[in-house]
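Bench log, entry 3. Co-assembly request; chain sequences pasted below exactly as received.
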Amino acid sequence: MIGYNSSPRLHIAHGCFSQGDFGIPCRIGNSICGQRATTVLLGLVLFSLLQASSVSAEDPSDEIAFFETEFASVREGYVSLEWNPVDSAVEYVVSGSNGEVPYRGAFPQAFVSGLSDGDYTYAVAAFDDRGQQIATSEIPATVVVEHWPVWQAALLFGIGLVVFLVVIALILRGSMAERAAVRREATRTGVLRS
Amino acid sequence: MMFDFPIASAPVLSQQWGYILLILFSVLWISLGIWWGRRAKSYDGFAVAGRNVGLALGTATAVATWITSNTTMLAPQFALQLGVWGALAYATASFGLFAFAPMSGRIRRLMPNGYTAVEFVRRRYGLLGTIPFLVISLFYAITWLISMSMAGGKLLYVLSGIPYEVGMTVVVLVCVLYTLFGGMYAVIGTDFIQSLIILVGLVVVAVAVLTQIDIADVHEKLAADRPMLLSVLFPAALMSLFNNMLFGFGEIFHSNVWWSRAFAMREGVGPKAYALGGMLWLPVPIVAGFLGLAAPALGIGVSQPDTVGPMVAATLLGWGGALLVFIVVFCSLASSIDSLLAATADLIVNDIVEPVLSKRTSDETKRRLSAYSIIGLGLLAWSIALPNVGTLATVLFFAGPMVGSCIWPIVGGLYSRRPSPTAAALAMILGSVAGLIAYFTIGWFVSSLVGAAVSGLVFGIMTWLSCEAFDFDTLAGPPKQTSATEVGGVS
Amino acid sequence: MIVFPVWFLQILVIGALVLCSAGVAALIVFLSSDSKNNRIW
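Structure output for the full assembly:
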């Protein structure tokens, strides 16, 4: 089973690996699909940013900022926040405006999912090995979640259900007819033999 | 050098252990391939394992082939993105196996000497239906093969730090070698061991998770922080449900991977094996998906949703968990790559080379041609996967609408006399085109659905207008030359 | 928002685990019965 990977990743385009990244290059929805060229461009920019950061890794920098701060109209309720790595940081903590902590970990990226409709703001802070906060983001990431309308989902669900049921009905009818034919054949050969 | 900038995930296993496991399993699969290969003397033995595969191996091969690396890695991601519905949607792919179960019995009966799905389409619909079907089949098989090879390299890199080129090359080479030596015998034989390893591995990891955390805690945590994941009316998840299912239907109904197994199984085994295979596959995405849902409750910060499965396993079970994940992933990769190599080689030999030569080729020639095809396919996949162009793997998803539009021509052509070649060809072409347009204009979540729906409409109307009466007896083809029969027995 | 209840998640996960384990057992049983009748291949 292939399965659709509904989460597009920028970093795959610039050679950074993550498993399961064999998905479609667009987020759900045409509005974002239309921005594929922008996505590729953005990927290239990110790529050069990352390369630049590895080059300039020697001079310590205590600044931390999200690569992308505006996520308008997120239709599936999930978003991937990324920020620049800070040299002496061992842990990053992403916190939301309502006090929730959706991410605490060592990598400069957080995947937040399951958000319902609404506006969310996130800040990220970096901590060193003594647990001291060494950097915090100045500009928060704002996420506006607007799920697809339920009627649209219900419509597609309905069409899918109809196609599914017709396929199944066709197979059931066919295999029942075949079973009857096989039985007839068996009795016929049985009669011939006796 | 491609890896010298930070990646968002550290390997969960040391490189040394990665290599040890890689070598261990490579030796195991290749020696099993050589051992089983002794049976594969005739072409029938090589291509369809002597047409006498029993229930145990038949069931296992259905399960193992359908569990790709995506099932074990993408299901947790799907659950983390689309919640409970995401895991359920993934699990519905098993319906494809249930639906194919009765079809496999009929296929085996109608074509006792058949080898491929394209052969069926050729006899049923003639050249008109064969051309679009062959194009779709090859597109799907080759892109799947390439994306699995790439997945192999990436997964081994992420899990153990083995360089992409090395991991990818070893995965492809090992699969080519054992398929080359053992043909379908080796593919089906290794599938049995692989499916056992995958199922046991998943159960162990999931039980370990359950000893650490209660399902009620997971529920509570999700309800508080990620409420949509528990929502019954999650729009994106509801939209993707039938799209995924129909993609799965299309994949199984059209692909020679599944047809060659229908031919390989002993008379009467196919329907049982496919139905049982579906039952065994059904829980896999749910168990794997639960790992994804448990991550937030376990306090595991998720950087990339597609690494969540191995991260949960490695966090809870430490080194042992990482080892287990590596083995499970390697098995799921191998079980699908080998099947694709074998089934696509059959397709090339029987449906391209033989018709082009337009004469009966001897069994020995076909056996040799198969070997060349397997090597060629392996080389093709390897050379395209080597540069690791990420966007390439996404081409595979164009296959969604294409395979979705094969559902009706296959089911209709198999059970009804009336569908005409024109109906089949138009259904495949118009369905694919409409599905691809929908993919780009609306979104991925409608592409297979639109493909299946449009092709269904076209196929239905054309069939209703037609007055064909196909003679199913012609599907059996000309009587087969007698060849050295396979010696049965216990392996 | 209508959410999936806890018991649904419990049935889903436990059921899937049981089914997985039963699957392993079934495969082994099938193999032994097939090999008894010399009908593996």
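Confidence is low (pLDDT under 50) at residues 1-9, 482-491 of chain B. Chain B has 19 helices and no strands.
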